[in-house]
Specification:
Elements lengths: L5 H10 L7 H13 L1 H23 L10
Bound molecules: zinc ion (ZN).
């Protein structure tokens, strides 16, 4: 299995937000993250962003036209 470079890994990590990764992709990312602080930071940032996006989407549902009181 060829080692993934940072570019591939970060792209795969953002792909993960849109689609399920294949087993091979997940394995490659996991192995790369073990040895790469930069990508590990990127991965945790993405995870935090996704959590944030989910909680925002869950709490803000009022359309902007109804905000003037
Ligand atoms: Zn990396």
């Amino acid at each position: 299995m060829p080692l993934a470079n940072c570019k591939t890994v970060t792209r795969t990590l953002s792909d993960k937000l849109d689609r399920a990764l294949t087993l091979r992709e997940r394995a490659r990312v996991r192995v790369h993250l073990l040895g790469c602080n930069g990508c590990r930071a990127y991965a945790s940032q993405l995870a935090a962003l996704r959590l944030l996006a989910h909680s925002v989407a869950g709490h803000i549902e009022t359309p902007s036209s109804q905000t003037d009181e």
